[in-house]
Design a protein that fits this description.
Length: 328
């Protein structure tokens, strides 16, 4: 085998264990949820996981526990790859078919809601780790009944109210514009963030009220007005970070004990590559809430791989030269 080919082959084989070891250690990550209109999980987290004030959030905690609220930015599927309807059955849309977040799927008309009206709307997605990808926001069809489990057929999937690809984050939010159609009473906005650098996708349900009251839910029934929704403050997010069980890949959570197992090999590969790419960018870390130690760790990992390649290259080169001399 020519020396050049031998170098390439040995380097590839030699680096594979190192790369697989590094990628296997990459944890799953948490990245965000809709902040305006406020998502169900963000609303309940804002009320306080241990003692929520609204009846809907109390019921959500009773169904799924408090941990789901501390993990508010982790309603996700690691290997979604655009197959949202295949992976998420009717009635499980708000939880993304996750047992942890099942309290978000409760069908009831008293979820705290954001008051909206038809026309242009500025959406704000609270993000804790930035990634390239596309946001799509769907609204329920006229006649939506919040007292029935949310099904895919309840959403107007042919006409998303907002679509945004690779928006720029500022002050912890992705901000993008959309247009809300004519609706009345209680409706729901379903947001899907599908990453393009990974098969991972994130989901959120935001309850909204057209006309300022939910007395007319669109189902022919009447109820008392729903509470107004409000997003958690930065102080609340910071205070609850230690209780989270999902890792942010250095984007705001430096506690190694909160690592979650990666869902797929492709997910860990994309996550590790993304972190190395952002390693030397102080601005990126500042935007996502990380600190400078993250860059040193990522660069250190890249350096180990580079050193390994150099050692292998040198070893093979010496053998090739030695073999040439003996053959003379």
């Amino acid at each position: 085998m020519p020396a050049r080919r031998m170098v390439a082959a040995v380097a590839t084989l030699g680096l594979t264990p190192l790369a697989l070891t590094a990628l296997a250690a990459a944890p799953a990550s948490a990245h965000g949820t809709m902040g305006d209109p406020v998502s169900r999980v963000a609303q309940c987290y804002a009320e306080g996981p241990e003692s929520p004030s609204s009846d809907a959030c109390k019921a959500a905690v009773a169904a799924g526990g408090t941990q789901a609220l501390y993990d508010w930015n982790g309603v996700r599927i690691g290997d979604a790859n655009g197959q949202h309807q295949t992976l998420i059955p009717d009635g499980k849309l708000c939880s993304a078919n996750s047992e942890e977040f099942k309290g978000l799927d409760l069908a009831r008309a008293d979820w705290p809601a954001t008051s909206v009206s038809s026309g242009s709307y500025t959406f704000k997605y609270r993000v804790t780790a930035q990634h390239k990808g596309t946001f799509k926001v769907y609204i329920t069809k006229a006649g939506y009944d919040p007292t029935q489990p949310l099904a895919w057929d309840d959403l107007d999937l042919d006409n998303p109210v907002a679509t945004a690809t690779d928006p720029v984050a500022s002050d912890g939010y992705y901000t993008f514009s959309g247009t809300l159609p004519e609706r009345s009473g209680s409706q729901l906005l379903y947001a899907v963030w599908q990453r393009s650098d990974s098969p991972e996708a994130f989901y959120s349900c935001s309850d909204v009220t057209f006309g300022g009251s939910s007395a007319d839910s669109g189902s022919g029934t009447t109820s008392s007005p729903t509470p107004s929704a409000s997003a958690p403050s930065e102080e609340q997010i910071e205070e609850g970070a230690d209780e989270s069980t999902v890792e942010h890949h250095g984007h705001g959570d430096d506690d190694a004990s909160t690592s979650a197992e990666p869902t797929t090999t492709s997910e860990t590969t994309a996550a590790a590559a993304n972190d190395v790419q952002a390693a030397g960018t102080t601005e990126n870390l500042a935007e996502t809430g990380g600190d400078s130690s993250t860059s040193y760790i990522a660069m250190g990992g890249a350096a180990v791989l580079a050193i390994g390649a150099a050692i292998l290259f040198g070893s093979v080169r010496r053998r090739a030269v030695s073999g040439g001399r003996h053959g003379r």
